[in-house]
Each structure stands twice: as C-alpha cells, then as structure tokens.
From TrEMBL:
GO cellular component, one term: membrane
Superkingdom: Bacteria
Organism ancestry: Bacteria, Bacillati, Actinomycetota, Actinomycetes, Micrococcales
Membrane association type: Multi-pass membrane protein
GO term, biological process aspect, one: ATP synthesis coupled electron transport
Known function: Subunits I and II form the functional core of the enzyme complex. Electrons originating in cytochrome c are transferred via heme a and Cu(A) to the binuclear center formed by heme a3 and Cu(B).
Residue span, Cytochrome oxidase subunit II copper A binding domain: 132-262
PROSITE patterns from the UniProt entry: COX2, COX2_CUA, PROKAR_LIPOPROTEIN
Protein name per Swiss-Prot or TrEMBL: cytochrome-c oxidase
Localization (cell): Membrane
Organism: Neomicrococcus lactis
TM ranges: 61-82, 103-120
Amino acid sequence: MSSQDRTGSRRTVAKVTAIAAAGTLLLTGCSEEVQRGWLPNVVKDTTNHTGAIQELWVNSWIASLIIGLLTWGLMLWCIIAYRRRKGDEGYPRQLSYNLPMEIFYTAVPIVIILAFYSFSNSVQHKIDAPVDSPLVIDVRAKQWAWDFNYKYEGEEKYFAGVQAHLDGTEGTKEKLPTLYLPVNVPVTFELNSRDVIHSFWIPAFLQKLDMIPGKTNHIYLTPQTEGTFDGKCAELCGEYHSEMLFNVKVVSEEEFKQYLATLPDGQIGEEYDRKPDVVNSTTQGEGE
Ligand SMILES: [Cu+2]
C-alpha cells in the first residue's frame, strides 16, 4: 500500500468516526433526560424556581462543554502538530516565557468565572428573595422525623411526625410523614432543627437548605405542579439518617384545606426542641 493510500484510508476512518460521534451526540441530545441535564425527575415548572435552576444548570454544562472542546482541541493540536518527527534531534526550542500568551490564559478564565458567577448570582438572588406568603410552614427536623406547623388563613395546625420504622426493616412510603402543599400558593418554609444539623431537601424542587439548631433558615417558593414527590434529610445526622424521609403532596387548594381540617389545632414549636445539654451528652456528634 502506498503512503498516499494509507493517508486516504486514515482520512476515511477519521471522517466516519467524526460522523458517528456527531450522530450519537445529536441522538442523545434529543432525549428529555439529557435536555434537563439529568436532573432528578423534574418538570420545568415543578415550582416557580425549577425552570431558572434547570436553565442555569443546562446552560452551564453547554458552556463548559464548549470550553472543554476548545481546550482539548488545542491540546490535541499541539500534541500532533509539534510531535517529534523522524530525524529530530535534541530538545525542541525552549521558551522561558511568553507575555501575551500568559496574559491571555489568565484573563480568559477570569472572564469565564465572572460570567458563571454573574448568572449563578442572579438566579440565586431571584430564588432567595423573601416573599410575603399566605402559607407559612414551620418545619422542625428531629432525629429522625419531621414536624410540620402550618399557618394558613389565620388557622394554626400541626402534624407531628413519628419515624415509621426504627427496627431495621424496610419502611413503606405510606407510613412516612407527609407534607401537604397547595398548588400555585406561595409558601414560606421556616426551617428549624430540634437537635442536630439536618437538611431539608425535596429533590424534584431542586432546592435544599440546612436546618441548624438555634437558627431559622427560609425557603420561599410556589409549587406549580400537582403530584407526589420525595423529601429527605440531606445532612448526615445520626444512626437513622437514611430513614429520615418524608412525602410531599402538592394538591389543589381545596384538597389542602380539607387536609388541614383533619389536623389538630395549634403548633408544636421550640418547646419540644431537645435541650442543648441533653444533645451534647447523648447523641450529638454520633455518626457525624
Ligand atoms: Cu437529618
């Protein structure tokens, strides 16, 4: 085989590989899962924030991929174009510095980071902006369940969570504490802990926030899609952390009111928090 033939067949192989790669990218690009950046089972409008978070996430991946392709391309090009050839002897020409190049590779990443920062920052500000909500839920995390105190239309109701299973057997979803939310009603979550640090996480809502003893954190959002979602503690908080789960039911406002009517009146607030000395002498730090 002449060297020309060999170059020709190599080019064909390269072309086929490139077409196959582009085809694969296009095909996988069509799937819904890829379009939402593999985010957990999310509809774009699960809450009033999920759309913006998903867009930020997916666009950041696209930008990162473009930057990655450029960088890998340049590296590959250098490796191939400046490879050692037959007859080369000794070291190639050594350069100690190249000022324009150094300014370029310092300035460009700074611009990239500032761009990422400004997009993230604007979404973060939008999400964290306090909202005067008609529904306020004081969520109290405790080893290893959840209490929900509802304040809605002048009424105060509570749900006291009991851990469904503490004997090592697998629990059932039906027995978990359930947080009810009315669709399209803005809600303020007041996140509190009764003992150690926990974290309030509803994966489908794409939001998560720590719950720290003695400090109240806030999440403001409006659920926009009815359905049942998973909730969990996202901070290792002791022996049964993995069982600290809850259900989230986003229902119509009517159904929500009916549910509230079944709950006892009042609130179970900080009077049921564990005292710091008890926390220190028994379980704090255990498993953390
Ligand atoms: Cu926890």
